[in-house]
From TrEMBL:
GO molecular function, one term: metallopeptidase activity
Name listed for the protein in its UniProt record: Zinc metalloprotease
UniProt source species: Pseudaquabacterium rugosum
Entry cofactors: Zn(2+)
Membrane topology: Multi-pass membrane protein
SUPFAM superfamilies xrefs: PDZ domain-like (SSF50156)
PDZ domain residues: 221-292
EC class name: hydrolase
Length: 462
């Protein structure tokens, strides 16, 4: 709990500070007097001001944003001696630069954070695949448990444009992007498990078949990929559970269930889940390897309710931790990868927003502060490299969101400036008031939907 709250506050603090610092520094560079630099909204709980003529730095109690208040004749009368330091009297290009500086600071921060994550390195699963979902696109393409993905390329593109796959995380990212763009991928595969046909082979994942489907958190499962390969070995066996009562022990490797070979832990878990006859578990005949010997066990799973269906459970941890690899880059490669990942996440964010707007993707994909807090806590526990990568992704999202042409956001102010550049006159006060009210309504709606999605995820409704 403490790591979740701490990670969330640290995430918000860093991103808000950098965003407002971007506005502040460019305003000062353009000769605009900054009256207040605020972290948070509402009642001030801390303040510092070197002199009455300097910027007042404050910390407010609601840490969900911040603002930079500049000298502006539209907000209050300005002494003649300070008119040259007002925001409203600066040239249009300077006002636009001040507005754009906040989101751009978040994007620059994302590049540096992604680069730092690559420099530090993160432990990620090797791209060795678990059993694909039965009947899925991946299974139809020919993927099997234990297949190691070595490289990918866009189908129909340059025959020599193979890109290496350093980890399962990278493979998931490439698949997500390809599905969003409606393009298929060629994969270069090497089988790793006994009994499989060894040697390198190539196959095609027809991701363009998913063009009309939602791109959401369940996308990879619909493709058929459920995780990294894990041996069908039993971990901790709960006392008095079905597995323990059948004589199973920690370290047993399950070879067959009812005569069917077990490819991996995913396949074993699925066989157990399906072993239900009405309200009772169906007894399974397990052949397990223990200490070089093969034993036969009669296991009767317990039946549990899982939503609107019943599943079997044996109350034992199934599967070994996946094999991991340290993914790390040198200084230049890390910076290049940071630039590339920031660009890719920006594109993906805009495409997802457009899909939600046009109804091609569900608004269930919209996340709010509770989801961010949860992921922040998890990434903090996984190490600095993971947390920096998470922070970079949120920073990109904040930068992209603020550049949207919505009143109340930086992109809305840039929209006003674009109107002024075209017509030679600013937006009227009447229309400004109307647009601000409309923009506030849209933002409140988005925040409400995001908060509802957060609560629904916590309650298991999504």
């Amino acid at each position: 709990m403490l790591s979740t709250v701490g990670g969330f506050l640290l995430t918000l603090g860093v991103l808000i500070l950098v965003h407002e610092w971007g506005h502040y520094r460019v305003a000062r560079a353009c000769g605009v007097k900054v009256l207040r630099f605020s972290m948070g909204f509402g009642r001030v709980i801390w303040r510092r001001q070197a002199s009455p003529q300097d910027t007042e730095f404050v910390l407010s109690w609601l840490p969900l944003g911040g603002y930079v208040r500049m000298l502006d004749e539209r907000e209050a009368p300005v002494p003649p001696a300070l008119l040259d330091q007002t925001y409203n009297r600066k040239p249009l290009w300077q006002r636009s630069a001040i507005v754009a500086a906040g989101p751009l600071a978040n994007l620059v921060l994302a590049v540096l954070l992604y680069a730092a994550s690559h420099w530090i390195g993160v432990q990620e699963p090797l791209p060795v695949l678990a059993s694909p979902v039965a009947g899925s696109l991946a299974e139809r393409a020919g993927l099997r448990a234990g297949d190691a993905v070595q490289a990918w390329r866009t189908s129909g593109g340059d025959a020599d444009a193979w890109q290496p796959v350093p980890s399962l995380t990278d493979l998931r990212w490439q698949l997500t992007q390809a599905a969003m763009e409606g393009r298929s991928l060629d994969l270069r595969i090497n089988a790793t498990q006994p009994g499989a046909a060894h040697g390198t082979r190539e196959l095609t994942l027809r991701l363009d078949d998913l063009r009309g489907e939602e791109v959401d958190a369940a996308l990879l499962r619909r493709i058929g990929l459920v995780g990294a390969y894990s041996e069908p070995v039993l971990g901790e066996v709960k006392a008095d559970g079905p597995a323990a009562l059948a004589g199973a022990r920690q370290g047993d490797r399950v070879l067959r269930v009812d005569g069917r070979p077990v490819a991996d832990a995913v396949a074993l878990r699925e066989l157990i889940r399906q072993s239900v006859d009405g309200l009772r578990g169906r007894t399974q005949r397990w052949e397990v390897e223990r200490g070089g010997r093969t034993l036969t066990l009669e296991v009767t799973p317990r039946v549990l309710e899982d939503g609107d269906r019943r599943i079997g459970r044996v109350e034992a941890y199934i599967g070994e931790p996946p094999r991991m690899v340290l993914v790390r880059a040198d200084a230049l490669d890390g910076l290049a990868q940071g630039l590339q990942r920031t660009w890719e996440v920006s594109q993906l964010s805009l495409k997802m927003l457009w899909r939600m707007l046009t109804g091609e993707a569900s608004v269930k994909n919209l996340s709010g502060p509770l989801t961010i807090a949860d992921y922040a806590g998890q990434s903090v526990q996984q190490g600095l490299g993971y947390y920096l990568g998470f922070l970079a992704m949120v920073s990109v999202s904040l930068g992209v969101l603020n550049l949207l042409p919505l009143p109340m956001l930086d992109g809305g102010h840039l929209m006003y400036h674009a109107f002024e550049a075209v017509t030679g006159r600013p937006v009227s006060d009447l229309w400004l008031a109307r647009l601000q009210r409309g923009g506030l309504a849209v933002l409140l709606l988005m925040m409400s939907v995001a908060l509802y999605n957060d609560v629904a995820r916590l309650l298991g409704l999504h």
